[in-house]
Design a protein that fits this description.
One of its GO terms (molecular function) is threonine synthase activity. Its EC number is 4.2.3.1. Pathway: Amino-acid biosynthesis; L-threonine biosynthesis; L-threonine from L-aspartate: step 5/5. Belongs to the threonine synthase family. With about 475 residues, the chain is an alpha/beta fold. It has two domains: about 210 residues, Rossmann fold (3-Layer(aba) Sandwich); about 140 residues, 3-Layer(aba) Sandwich (Rossmann fold). The protein is built from 21 helices and 15 strands. Strands 3-4-14-9-10-13 form a six-stranded mixed beta sheet, with helices on both faces. A five-stranded parallel beta sheet has the order 8-5-6-7-15, sandwiched between helices. A two-stranded antiparallel ribbon has the order 1-2. α17 packs across α19. The longest helix has 19 residues. About 60% of the residues are buried.
């Protein structure tokens, strides 16, 4: 299994190469050279143990180049983050409507599954090469927290996390800034998530940093991150008993939704994919109106979805265009320069055939948190509420055909203010969250400026070395 880039990069990379590169040299995103056909019984594996399923999927996508021990360690850490009391964390709301709880890992967010997997795989790849790596990541809250917990203390990795200052929840910030590890730097950026993401993409191609060694990212632009999210679609669909269930995904950077697309592409029991977005709805506008426009992100209760330039939309465009690297390159180069592009009618229709999308307002989000508690007895986070609101609307309008699985991506206690406002009481927090308060925080601040970011990262690398 080798990997190519969405913008035409064809010097094939192994999984290890794609993992450590993060981004292809021409700015594109890595995808498999061809989508594999499972050489095992995918249905049986999906119904079986989660770690065993993950091992088989990792080997299918070429992760075996890192050795059996690394693959098994990654799969076990992923299983430990996924299961609830030893079982697939599905909660039935109605006969054909389920919540998939993806927040039972160390930071109580779905990012833990992929990040817990990435850490041992990255260490194994670096150990094979005898090298060290600087990882940079942009976060709207959960990615950064999961990355810090996964990579803190690594002998091979230096991690720099950029988050939009004041635009993550207090719990998300504390989960990053209270981890005291010499190999981790937390940076608050005076801007929005898209500013942070722009900085990371610039850093990955910065010659001054490349001269100091390997540099990559753990955002979902990294194929290794995205791959860690594929198994739970397969496992959830199998254990729900539903035939080709529709998955409704609360969407920011579109990585989680694209992982569902991958699960379906390789023959999994995955039906329609629906991306639910908040007021930052560039993805919805692109798919439904044919115009992809980067506006300033506005702050919402579902802060991890406050994204107006979702990186993984590029992977979807590449696939929907028939893997036309030239067209993908031209579209995203133009978008990078002007912040606005028009999609051809043919491309728009192709995108709609792969995924649908809708926008959920703040009022709808709050009302759905209340409904989930009163009707189903569930206390859910704002991101989950966005997805559940979209799912219920699709049921009411008849757009949903058959059963649905709604991804529940974070513990409600990570967003106590908004949930309390909706319900009239504060969600009960697990000890891993309540114990954060009062701990010492370590945080640097900087403007939303690439030059400042280069200086900050360069100084940190030199200090660590």
């Amino acid at each position: 299994m080798n990997y190519i880039g969405t913008r035409g990069f064809k010097e094939q990379r192994s999984f290890a190469g794609a993992l450590l590169d993060g981004l292809a040299p021409d700015g594109g995103l890595y995808v498999p050279q061809a989508w594999p056909t499972p050489d095992f019984d995918l249905s049986a594996a999906s119904n079986g143990g989660y770690a065993d399923l993950t091992v088989q999927l990792l080997n299918l996508f070429g992760v075996g180049v890192l050795g059996d021990q690394a693959v098994k360690a990654a799969a076990q850490r992923t299983e430990d983050a996924f299961l609830r009391d030893g079982a697939v964390p599905l909660t039935r709301l109605e006969n054909d409507l389920y919540l998939l709880e993806l927040y039972h890992g160390p930071t109580h967010a779905f990012k833990d599954m992929a990040m817990q997997m990435m850490a041992p795989l990255t260490d194994a790849a670096l150990a094979q090469r005898g090298e060290k790596l600087t990882l940079v990541t942009a976060t709207s809250g959960d990615t950064g927290a999961a990355a810090v917990r996964a990579f803190a203390g690594s002998e091979h990795v230096k991690l720099i996390v950029f988050h939009p200052l004041g635009r993550v929840s207090p719990v998300q910030r504390l989960q990053m800034t209270t981890v005291q590890a010499d190999n981790v730097l937390n940076v608050g950026v005076n801007g929005d998530f898209d500013d942070c993401q722009k900085i990371v993409k610039a850093l990955l191609s910065e010659p001054a940093l490349k001269a100091q060694g390997l540099i990559s990212s753990v955002n979902s632009i990294n194929w290794g991150r995205l791959l860690g999210q594929v198994p739970y679609y397969l496992s959830a669909a199998a254990h729900s008993g539903l035939d080709k269930p529709e998955f409704v995904v609360p969407t920011g950077n579109f990585g989680d939704a694209f992982a569902g697309w991958v699960a379906r592409q390789i023959g999994g029991n995955v039906g329609h994919l629906h991306a639910a977005v908040n007021r930052n709805d560039a993805l919805n506008q692109a798919i439904n109106n044919g115009r992809y426009v980067r506006r300033q992100a506005v702050e919402t209760a579902s802060v991890s979805m406050d994204v107006q330039a979702p990186s993984n939309f590029e992977r979807l465009v590449f696939e929907a265009s028939g893997r036309d690297a030239g067209a993908t390159r031209d579209l995203f180069n133009a978008f990078g320069q002007s912040g606005e592009v028009a999609l051809s009618g043919h491309l728009q229709e192709a995108l709609k055939s792969e995924v649908s999308a809708s926008t959920v307002s703040e009022d709808q989000t709050k009302a759905t948190i209340k409904l989930a508690y009163e009707k189903y007895g569930q206390v859910i986070c704002p991101h989950t509420a966005v997805a559940l609101s979209a799912a219920l609307t699709r049921r009411e309008t008849g757009e949903a055909k058959g059963g649905q699985i709604v991804l529940s991506t974070a513990h409600a206690a990570k967003f106590p203010a908004f949930v309390t406002e909706a319900l009239g009481f504060e969600p009960k927090a697990p000890d891993a969250i309540t114990n954060l308060y009062g701990l010492t925080e370590t945080l640097s601040e900087m403007p939303a400026d690439v030059t400042a970011a280069v200086t900050t990262v360069k100084a940190f690398i030199e200090w660590i070395d």
